[in-house]
Amino acid sequence: MQLTDLLAPHASRLKAIPLAQLNSNDPARARDFALQANDLYLNFARQRWDREALEALFDIATARDVSAQLKDLFDGKEVNRTEKRAALHTALRSNISNAPAARESNQLANATFERMSEIVERLSRPDIHDVVSLGIGGSDLGPRFVVDAFGSQTPTRVHFVSNADAHAVDRCLAALDPAHTAVIVMSKSFGTQETLLNAGVARAWLGEYANDRIYAVTSRPEAAIEFGVAPAHVLPMWDWVGGRYSLWSAVGLPIALALGMSGFKSLLDGAAKTDALVYSAPLRENPAVWHALSVVWNTNALGLAGHVVVPYDERLRLLPAYLQQLVMESLGKSTRFDGQKIVDATSPVWWGSAGTDAQHSYFQCLHQGNATSNIELIGVVHPDHSHNDQHKVVLANLFAQSEALANGHAATDPHLAHAGDRPNTLILMSRLNPDSLGQLLALYEHSVFVQSVMWGINAFDQFGVELGKHLAAGLLRTWDDGAAAHDPVTRALMDEIGRD
Ligand code: F6P
């Protein structure tokens, strides 16, 4: 039976009850619908559900074998069934599972971290001032986000270039000196067009320094060596780590360069804390399961197609971009494992940006527009600056927005009325540091996996990105012969640029 049908009786019962009333009728929700997950506090009381609906969701999660599937993930079973692979990102940071595949992967990861540590040391020499990381998608978004969050804590300045648009690489290199710069080519496949193009530009720019200064992280070392990277400069990746789950691997090299190896290890330690919790907690006490069920509830019971993430901390401004790939490349699918079409809606569209800026942009639409979204508001309790009054303003705004979205505001003038009933989840982090950030990111990863189990999706393939790549390659092959272009619209576009 589809989720939409299973949840429909609860959805129609709850649609008649304002969210504010759900909480005023049952004030204990404020505590009972909250969980402490190490240094993270999650509150789901402003979700438009009740105890009965939650029970139904937990029953479905039990029937869909969420606990056993989570165990399979940690044990290195072939959870990526279409590509016949394990997805052992957890083994990069935890040795929680005794399964041989997990043990072996954990050992490989630790051996790689030793080599990574040597490379960090080598690149920390005084004549290297800047390191440029070239990669895209999972080989860029995670390290870019973490380095942006904490800035450079070492003398090494780390830069990121991802886009095929050469303005990006030009702009980055123009500010640097080849005599004092190293380049890391991050590509699991070592075949991604954007990354190889930018790597070619960087190699030419490095000139005489290229041999000494190019490093690579890849699962195809032979391709990196052929490109000109010295074998000792190549760190491995493995097919059991998906790109969007890879910041815990040697893909985290830019993080280790900016935060030091100890900062990178703290990130892993934080993720391991969430792993331990998610691995052992029963469904009803499992923060990743609660989080996943809130997404499923909004998607399949309430029919909401948007999921907005608003971190009230400038340091987390790139979190929404990171989550967009993690979630939507994992769950933006409509075919089940068994090849059957999924009739239920699957991943909502995830987007967002840092609060309070977001309040002066699209919050108008969230409060009074007709298309409602689920909203996730994230705050950090203790800041790392000394402007405590200013921090109070940020937290007051976060709490006020959550209340306004949920409870609305009655007014005689309809222009001033706020309908409320905008479901939202609150996540508070005690402090923001690599450890707590690791905890948060691992929580999202596990939530994505639980959502995938609820929908019967393989969270670890991404065939949907291939068609566009394939068509672009075909267009490039026939570039000078516009007439051969694929369809009338593309032909018109080719004609248009030909006239210029
Ligand atoms: O966008 C598709 C994708 O394959 C992502 O899954 C991946 O993170 C990214 O491209 C980069 O791939 P690679 O690391 O192989 O260059």
Automatic annotation (TrEMBL):
Alphabetized, the UniProt keywords read:
Cytoplasm, Gluconeogenesis, Glycolysis, Isomerase
Q: Does the keyword Repressor apply?
A: no
Query: What Enzyme Commission number(s) appear in the record?
Result: 5.3.1.9
Q: Where in the cell is it found?
A: Cytoplasm
Pfam families in the record: PGI
State the Gene Ontology terms under molecular function.
Answer: glucose-6-phosphate isomerase activity
What is the reaction catalyzed?
A: alpha-D-glucose 6-phosphate = beta-D-fructose 6-phosphate
Question: Which PANTHER family does the UniProt entry name for this protein?
Answer: GLUCOSE-6-PHOSPHATE ISOMERASE
Q: Which family does it belong to?
A: Belongs to the GPI family.
**Which protein are we looking at?**
Glucose-6-phosphate isomerase
Which species is listed as the source?
Lysobacter soyae
* Gene giving rise to this polypeptide: pgi
